[in-house]
Every structure is written in structure tokens, then in C-alpha cells.
Amino acid sequence: MTDAQLPHSFDDEDRGTWSLLMESCRTRLRQHGCAQARAGFEALELSEHIESMHAVDKRLHDLSGWHMQPVEGLVSDQHFYGLLRNKHFPTAPTMRKRSELEFAEFPDLFHDVVGHLPILVDRAYGDFLTGFAGIALRHLDSEPVMKALARFYWFTTETGLVEEDGGTKILGGAILTSSAEAANAMGDPARRTALTVSEVFATDYDIFDLQQKYFVASSYEALLSVLDELEEAAQALRASHV
Ligand SMILES: [Fe+2]
């Protein structure tokens, strides 16, 4: 186990940054997060005080079977999806700088822990993610398929929205952990469109800027039942590029 690599102590800047981020993130999550992210956030008992990630990892594992996997920088698709397939969520081990409170270009510890771990507590979402990773691992040798699947991951797990009880809720970790991204996503309905696999596959994105487009799943259950369609679309895309 790579537990020893999880950060367990933090300096004053890290502690202050975490607290400030959590202040706005908790309100946003409780008001606009999807039901599963809200429930997972409460179950994980994340607070405004940063704590040893060993403790967070233990609670995550007890609740979901998932572990945090500290990962520095970018990793290969094989490594990334291999971790997800085995219920290890790639987690940046360091906090963003205080100057990046509103919008951090790269994932940091806060983004990964508060943006992604809560929804993993929902067993169905965890299964969805391992199933998704399984599809990706079967297509590692097809560049167009890997590009399309990266778009699907981005437009769901990072910037996805979902219809819930007649309203639009946040599912994606990049929106949950950024007040600027949340304002952008929730502010103008013209930026939101119904999620379909074909349109997601055809839509590019820029990780260094606020999104121009957000995809809304018709329901949480509808999103989680899309894996068969995703595999078929991946195979069709693969076949069209041989
Ligand atoms: Fe992320």
C-alpha cells in the first residue's frame, strides 16, 4: 500500500488555504451539489480544518472500498485508468497556493479530496467509475477513443451537471471546488446542454479556462447506466479509424 505517501502534516499557508476554500465550498456543495455528493461529503466528515490524509483515506475506505492514491503531476492513461479500475483515486498530494483560491489551473489536494472523494462514497458511482476505467483500458491503443473517453470523463466527473428534483445540480469536482467555475456553470443556461455520448465525444475542452459548455445528465441514474452505450460508441469510433 502507498499509504505512507499520503500527506499528514501541513504548514500555516496550507491550513489557511484549506479553511478558506472549505468555507465557500461547503455552502456550494450543500446548496448545489447532487444528492450523492452531499451525502458523501457529510459521511466523510470533511471539515474546515485540514487533517492527516491517512484519516481521510481510512474513512473513505471504510465507507466505499476506495483508497486515495497520491500521484504527482500527469500520469499515463494506463496508470490513471489502472488506478481507477482498482478503486484507487489519483490524488494530488499538495495544496494549491493562496493566490489560486478562485481558480487553480492544476488539480490540488483540496480539489481531489473535496471535489471527488464524496461521490465515491456512493457505491453505484464507484462501480460506474471502475466500469468506465475498464472500457478505457480496453482501448489504450486507440488514440481517438482515448481522446473521446477523456472528454467523457471531463464532462461528467469534472464538469458534469445533473437534473435532480426539477433543478440542475453539480456533480463534477471541478465545479464543486471552484466558485468561479460554479458561477459560470450555473449562471447562464445557454452554456448548458443535455448530455449525450455522441455530443460529448465530439466536444473539445480547455482545462486552463472556465468552460464554454456544460453537459447535464437527465438524471443520476441515467448517467450511471450509460456504460454499455459508451462501450458501443468506443468500438464504433475505433472501427472508423482503422
Ligand atoms: Fe479532478
Automatic annotation (TrEMBL):
Q: Which domain of life is it from?
A: Bacteria
Keyword Magnesium in annotation: no
Q: Which cofactor does it need?
A: Fe(2+)
UniProt-listed SUPFAM superfamilies: Aromatic aminoacid monoxygenases, catalytic and oligomerization domains (SSF56534)
Protein known as: Biopterin-dependent aromatic amino acid hydroxylase family profile domain-containing protein
Q: Which UniProt keywords apply?
A: Iron, Metal-binding, Monooxygenase, Oxidoreductase, Plasmid
- Stated family: Belongs to the biopterin-dependent aromatic amino acid hydroxylase family.
Cite the Biopterin-dependent aromatic amino acid hydroxylase family profile domain residue spans from the record.
Answer: 1-242
Species annotation:
Streptomyces tendae
**Residue ranges the record marks as coiled coil:** none
Q: Does the keyword Acyltransferase apply?
A: no
The record's PANTHER family line, in alphabetical order, gives: AROMATIC AMINO ACID HYDROXYLASE (PTHR11473), PHENYLALANINE-4-HYDROXYLASE (PTHR11473:SF24)
For this protein's source organism, the top of the classification is: Bacteria, Bacillati, Actinomycetota, Actinomycetes, Kitasatosporales
